[in-house]
């Protein structure tokens, strides 16, 4: 379970409405003054492409090629048609608000396509200490404002594939509805999402829970209001739509309707019972409300299901299920209609795990159906589609299944299914691992025709990262991931061909390599049946399973001796173990408690370290016996990560703690006998090492920490004496407390573990000069500077740009400002990582507190959104403190 500080939510109630809170980090005021410098980094993902559950895809109904995807823990994304990629929209979410990376619903405004909304929050139980929020954007997610809610939302809770729970009125786009979980009912905003109030007239907050006996509050939570659908045929521009349908997690009362714009509500008469309505999609041309039903809330479970059609004019219900109830072993959830071809409807058997999911298609409003695949003579099957996963080859899982299973699979957890409202040939659907799509869907309807499916997921990175390693030779990056195991990245810009196999862990919990022999790698992880530890002798390219000691139930942590001759493993379910060779037999270590975190010294092959409940442990005999260190003052809990310095015998760094006790970063130079707490580090959660800066005598340190009152990713080139923040407020990625490492071959490069946004890596823009800048003598730039101005996104009447300002002089800056004039009528509407003013035609951007210091050769980056008309030409002249800057090509 994640550890995070408690987020204090301040709610201002006025006239029964929840007042809007201050904007999120992108729109917030200056951060507290920090006693650290800043460097400008370029941030990218180590490409995996996908890797997690995509429960929702939303197309805008009035603008072609505008689409959004939501993930359960990894934020929201916008589709970029020109590159067929996804752009992340919630990277600004910070540490204290980490739960807001879970997205329960997305709504795109059909009246004003620049507006988009996201309902965010990860858990409704105490795993997430913060309440949910509604984020609103007037520039397609480039920047956001936030309204905190008086209850939690569950982007990663049971039932998260139902929806959408958030909807914008297609006629009066100041009106939005939000379906809440946990018995909190239906909520409405009449001011474009700024304030919200409960619709007290709505009669049913839901009553279905996956497992009412679950004491954690996870499976026992009432799944609440699950979707909202407007009947746009019952309104006109500027007035609220009269007829609204709402789905409720109640098997006996699943669908309600209002015909007076939400003033009164009634249960739809004659509706089926015994099922939950996962989706409600309206075909206004034919007057049909289609409903996908399952006997459970999903996304994993579901044993029976039905499809129904409700005639809105007559109130007639028709069972249009493509299979008899007795023949279903799955529920229905994915549901869409073709807006270009009324009468065409599609649905998914989302919970058909074996042999594959199923997709159904009807072109006569559900009277008859065809299937994506059929049995010819069991177990042989005939597919109506072809599948090409060469862009994400790991989607085959390296499997060779027996028929009727195939690889790659059509999918599983297929709750998101959408036909492009402007293009009958384009369809996208989400799975538990990716987004698949096609651009020749109508071939389905041709006799003997096939349509082509391929991943449409590039740019959407949704893995939870448990551990990272960057060996001094071989692949630059090895990762331990939840759900899909992990990868050996020989290139950061290409998708690896396969995850770790032989065995395939469902989640890899820990990995390590032998420092002096980096071809030797060990990993530990979770697996339903099979070993929980595996070894490689070729730098992670190929693997073989070890043997579990008795009682092992989970991966835990594992460490490789410096020369690869021995290993120490602390698995779940039993105590710490050690072995020589490759784990054919293990022996119990003594002197160290079960559940301890273990690591190895990077110089002495016989020395291993452990930590548990405030105590540090040391073994000098290869893990056979451990002795508790006399060191005191260390964190009392188990939220601790530590590492030994490569090349430094007995040099150990330890990060961790909690707000109610010791919290920070500690250093030992005597093999853990004593530790010194670093001053000025308020909190730290990870520590890692990278290549030393030029002329530096100590390897570069990296940490996810709070230093000088600022949360961020920090770098030190002088053993922690001074620190530089290398990320900024636009790049925070929620919770980053699992792992961090530098690259031993590339100075400044850092790999950051996120909980849902994959592996992020950053490179210093200017390469740095090997030193961290301290306060300089000059209050403003006094010489050479360079500016790189990049328009990163543009749409009708609006655009987003990034500006990189580089100190190309010889003196450090302690404060900076940059002036320019637009050649047209562009206006800055919002800026982040800098403050801005406008005098006549001149725009001035000034530093905020935390990025005032810029060393020679280093850069600072800020961004903004703006408006334009006519043309959007770039500024040609930039000046810093009166000195003209060169412009980068």
TrEMBL record:
InterPro entries cross-referenced by the UniProt entry: CBD2, CBM2/CBM3_carb-bd_dom_sf, CBM2_carb-bd_dom_sf, WD40/YVTN_repeat-like_dom_sf, Xyloglucanase_GH74
Gene3D superfamilies: 2.60.40.290, YVTN repeat-like/Quinoprotein amine dehydrogenase (2.130.10.10)
Pfam family membership, one: CBM_2
Secretion signal span: 1-27
CDD domains for the chain: Sialidase_non-viral (cd15482)
MF term (GO), any: polysaccharide binding
Hydrolase keyword on record: yes
GO biological processes: cellulose catabolic process; xyloglucan metabolic process
Ranges for domain CBM2: 778-888
UniProt keywords, alphabetically: Carbohydrate metabolism, Cellulose degradation, Glycosidase, Hydrolase, Polysaccharide degradation, Signal
The keyword Signal is assigned to this record: yes
Family according to the record: Belongs to the glycosyl hydrolase 74 family.
Protein's name in the database: Xyloglucanase
Organism lineage: Bacteria, Bacillati, Actinomycetota, Actinomycetes, Kitasatosporales
């Amino acid at each position: 379970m994640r550890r995070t500080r408690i987020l204090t939510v301040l709610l201002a109630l006025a006239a029964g409405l929840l007042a809007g809170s201050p904007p999120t980090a992108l729109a917030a005021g200056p951060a507290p003054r920090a006693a650290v410098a800043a460097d400008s980094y370029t941030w990218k993902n180590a490409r995996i492409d996908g890797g997690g559950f995509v429960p929702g895809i939303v197309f805008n109904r009035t603008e072609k090629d505008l689409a959004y995807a939501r993930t359960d823990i990894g934020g929201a994304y916008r589709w970029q048609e020109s590159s067929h990629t996804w752009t992340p929209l919630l990277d600004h979410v910070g540490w204290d608000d980490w739960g807001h990376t879970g997205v329960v619903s997305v709504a795109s405004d059909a009246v004003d396509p620049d507006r988009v909304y996201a309902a965010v929050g990860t858990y409704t139980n105490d795993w997430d200490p913060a309440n949910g929020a509604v984020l609103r954007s007037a520039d397609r997610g480039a920047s956001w404002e936030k309204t905190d809610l008086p209850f939690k939302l569950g982007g990663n809770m049971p039932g998260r594939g139902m929806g959408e729970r958030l909807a914008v009125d297609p006629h009066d786009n100041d009106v939005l509805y939000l379906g809440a979980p946990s018995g909190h009912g239906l909520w409405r905003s009449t001011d474009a999402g700024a304030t919200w109030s409960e619709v007290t007239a709505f009669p049913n907050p839901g009553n279905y829970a996956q497992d009412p006996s679950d004491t954690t509050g996870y499976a026992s939570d009432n799944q609440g209001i699950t979707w909202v659908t407007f009947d746009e045929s019952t309104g006109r521009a500027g007035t609220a739509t009269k007829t609204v349908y709402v789905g409720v997690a109640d098997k006996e009362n699943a669908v309600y309707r209002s015909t007076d714009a939400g003033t009164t509500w009634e249960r739809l008469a004659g509706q089926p019972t015994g099922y939950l309505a996962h989706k409600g999609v309206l075909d206004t041309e034919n007057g049909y409300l289609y409903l996908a039903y399952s006997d459970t809330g999903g996304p994993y479970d579901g044993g029976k299901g039905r499809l129904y059609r409700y005639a809105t004019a007559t109130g007639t219900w028709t069972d249009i299920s493509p299979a008899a109830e007795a023949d279903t072993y799955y529920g229905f959830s994915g549901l869409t209609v073709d807006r270009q071809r009324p009468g065409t409807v599609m649905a998914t058997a989302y919970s058909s795990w074996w042999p594959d999911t199923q997709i159904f298609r009807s072109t006569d409003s559900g009277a008859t159906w065809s299937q994506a695949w059929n049995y010819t003579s069991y177990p042989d099957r005939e597919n109506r589609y072809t599948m090409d996963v060469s862009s994400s080859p790991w989607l085959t899982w390296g499997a060779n299944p027996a028929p009727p299973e195939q690889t790659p699979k059509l999918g599983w957890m297929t709750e998101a299914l959408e036909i492009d409202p402007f293009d009958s040939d384009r369809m996208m659907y989400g799975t538990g691992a990716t987004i698949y799509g096609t651009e020749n869907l109508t071939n389905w309807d041709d006799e003997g025709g096939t349509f082509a499916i391929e991943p449409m997921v590039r740019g959407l990175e949704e893995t939870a990262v448990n551990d990272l390693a960057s060996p001094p030779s071989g692949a630059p990056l090895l990762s331990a991931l939840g759900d899909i195991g992990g990868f050996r990245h020989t290139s950061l810009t290409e998708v690896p061909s396969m995850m770790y196999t032989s065995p395939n862990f469902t989640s890899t919990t820990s990995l390590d390599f032998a420092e002096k022999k980096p071809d030797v790698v060990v990993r530990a992880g979770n697996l339903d049946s099979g070993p929980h530890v595996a070894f490689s002798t070729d730098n992670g390219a190929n693997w073989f399973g070890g043997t579990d000691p008795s009682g092992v139930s989970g991966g835990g942590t594992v460490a490789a001796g410096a020369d690869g001759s021995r290993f120490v493993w602390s698995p779940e379910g039993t105590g710490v173990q050690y072995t020589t060779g490759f784990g054919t037999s293990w022996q119990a270590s003594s002197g160290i408690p079960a559940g301890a975190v273990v690591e190895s010294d990077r110089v002495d092959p016989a020395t291993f370290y452990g930590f548990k409940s405030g105590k540090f442990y040391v073994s000098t005999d290869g893990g056979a016996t451990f002795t508790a260190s006399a060191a005191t003052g260390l964190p009392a809990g188990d939220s601790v990560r530590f590492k030994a310095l490569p090349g430094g015998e007995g040099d150990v760094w330890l990060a961790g703690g909690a707000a109610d006790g010791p919290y920070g970063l500690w250093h030992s130079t005597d093999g853990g006998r004593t530790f010194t707490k670093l001053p000025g580090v308020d909190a730290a959660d990870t520590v890692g090492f990278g290549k030393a800066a030029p002329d530096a005598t100590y390897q570069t340190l990296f940490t996810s920490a709070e230093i000088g009152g600022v949360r961020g990713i920090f770098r030190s080139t002088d053993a922690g004496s001074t620190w530089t923040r290398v990320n900024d407020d636009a790049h925070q990625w929620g919770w980053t407390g699992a792992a961090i490492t530098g690259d031993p071959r590339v100075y400044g490069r850092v790999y950051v573990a996120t909980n849902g946004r994959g592996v992020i890596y950053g490179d210093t823009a200017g390469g740095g000069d090997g030193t961290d800048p301290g306060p300089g003598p000059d209050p403003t730039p006094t010489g050479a500077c360079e500016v790189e101005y990049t328009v990163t996104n543009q749409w009708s009447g609006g655009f987003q740009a990034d500006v990189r300002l580089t100190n190309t002089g010889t003196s450090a800056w302690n404060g900076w400002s940059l002036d320019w004039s637009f050649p047209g009528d562009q206006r800055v509407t919002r800026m982040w990582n800098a403050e801005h003013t406008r005098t006549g035609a001149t725009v001035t951007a000034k530093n905020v507190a935390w990025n005032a210091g810029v060393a020679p050769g280093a850069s600072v980056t800020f961004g903004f959104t703006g408006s334009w008309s006519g043309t959007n030409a770039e500024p040609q002249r930039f000046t810093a403190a009166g000195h003209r800057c060169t412009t980068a090509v």
